Amino acid sequence: MLSRCAMAALSPILITLQACYPQTPPDAPAVTRQTWQLSEIDGASFSARATLLIEAEGKVVGQAPCNRYLGQIEGSYPVFKLGRITTTKMACPELAAEALFLGALQTMTRAKLSDTTLLLSNASGTEMVFKAE
């Protein structure tokens, strides 16, 4: 265990290191402060309502066409991986759109923010375009 003197001597170094190596990249807060609405998947218009909110704590939450969902994000902007997404279990006429949305979302690995548009993509070339609400 470190003595108080050693801790006092190390504190400025640790604070400096944290400032040099921030946990969240500068662009990430703009992504996390916004609710995003899906407008298209792979160039095709998405008419059902689906939202995405990336929380600063490494969580993703939102409203799929039928159900609320949540998941964990590993990594940080712009490269990430979504952990398992869990949803509520309500039925509705938009279940096919929900399956498309959640299936595509689960495969996303890259984000690009441009003004009021968030583009998610993956190595296979699948893209999801979200607009700021």
Concise summary:
The chain is an alpha+beta fold and 133 residues long. It is built from three helices and ten strands, in the order H-H-E-E-E-E-E-E-E-H-E-E-E. It is globular and about 35 Å long.
Q: What structural keywords apply?
A:
alpha+beta; 10 strands; ten-stranded antiparallel β-sheet; 38% strand; 133 residues
Structure commentary:
26% of the residues lie in helices and 38% in strands. 19% of the residues are buried.
Please specify the SSE layout and strand pairing.
Blueprint: H1 4-20, H2 28-32, E1 35-41, E2 44-45, E3 51-55, E4 59-63, E5 68-76, E6 79-82, E7 86-87, H3 95-107, E8 110-114, E9 117-121, E10 127-132
Radius of gyration: 19 Å
- Shape descriptor reads globular
**Largest sheet descriptor:** 10 strands, antiparallel
Would you tell me the structural class of the helices and strands? alpha+beta
Mean pLDDT: 83
Question: Which strand-content bin applies to the residues?
Answer: 35-45%
- Helix % is 25-40%
Pick out the low-confidence regions: 5-27
DSSP strand count: 10
Distance between the termini: 50 Å
What is the tally of helical segments?
3
Along the chain, the helix and strand elements come as HHEEEEEEEHEEE
